[in-house]
Design a protein that fits this description.
Keywords: Membrane, Transmembrane, Transmembrane helix. With 217 residues, the protein is mainly alpha-helical. The protein has 8 helices and no strands. 83% of the residues lie in helices and 0% in strands. Helix 2 packs antiparallel against helix 8, helix 5 runs antiparallel to helix 6 and helix 7 packs antiparallel against helix 8.
């Protein structure tokens, strides 16, 4: 009986080592939580600005009624707001991920993290260029669901190099983005849910599942 238990433990350890060598396991749940909080702040700022411009719902009909200067002013604000959210989320994500990796005694920049980064970069860069084209042709309302869809595709693509939870988050973002395509009056709301609330839920689950016990040691 003891021999079988030892064999089972040995197999479990071997499996854990193989998983660590093939997957990037240093993603921090706090990265997701911080990204979600930053996204909600950005969405709140956009809501205040658009509400003042009578564009609370961000519907296609309202946007098309804007004159040139008003539309350009709105586009400039949304691009700046989105860029600040992206930069802040990335910086916080890198900080918490590096901190977790050091706590685990692992390196951050290795062959697995490079594959993960490439798997994320292809859909993200493609989606970014696609969104610029939408803005160029005044299809601003479509950029909100488009960012959700391409971001979800990036997470789904990269999930094979990290924990399975990332795949679920990616599928949720894609589904929400597809719904937002047909629920055009609430683009800002669905964007806030996708990048804000879903990230906070995902980050909390990741933290409770993988990090809480580590911090107690």
């Amino acid at each position: 009986m003891s021999d079988s238990h030892e064999h089972l433990q040995t197999l479990t350890e071997i499996r854990s080592l193989m998983e660590r060598s093939s997957k990037f396991l240093s993603l921090s749940g706090l990265s997701g939580i911080s990204a979600g909080v930053v996204a909600l702040i950005g969405a709140g700022a956009a809501y205040v600005r658009l509400h003042n411009n009578n564009l609370t719902l961000m519907s296609y009909e309202r946007i098309t009624r804007l004159n040139g200067p008003d539309r350009q002013d709105m586009v400039d604000f949304l691009i700046l707001d989105g860029a600040l959210v992206l930069v802040a989320a990335l910086l916080l994500g890198v900080f918490f991920t590096v901190r977790k990796a050091r706590r685990q005694g692992n390196g951050v920049w290795n062959s697995i993290s490079k594959r993960l980064l490439w798997a994320l970069a292809v859909p993200l860069v493609t989606g970014g260029i696609f969104c610029l084209a939408l803005i160029r042709f005044n299809l601003i309302w479509l950029t909100f669901p488009t960012t959700l869809i391409f971001y979800g595709m990036a997470l789904y693509s990269g999930s094979k190099y990290t924990v399975r939870d990332v795949e679920y988050l990616g599928l949720s973002e894609i589904l929400l983005g597809l719904v937002a395509l047909f629920w055009t009056g609430y683009s800002l709301l669905t964007w806030a849910v996708g990048f804000g609330i879903l990230h906070i839920v995902y980050g909390t689950v990741m933290y409770l599942k993988y990090e809480r016990d580590e911090l107690k040691r």
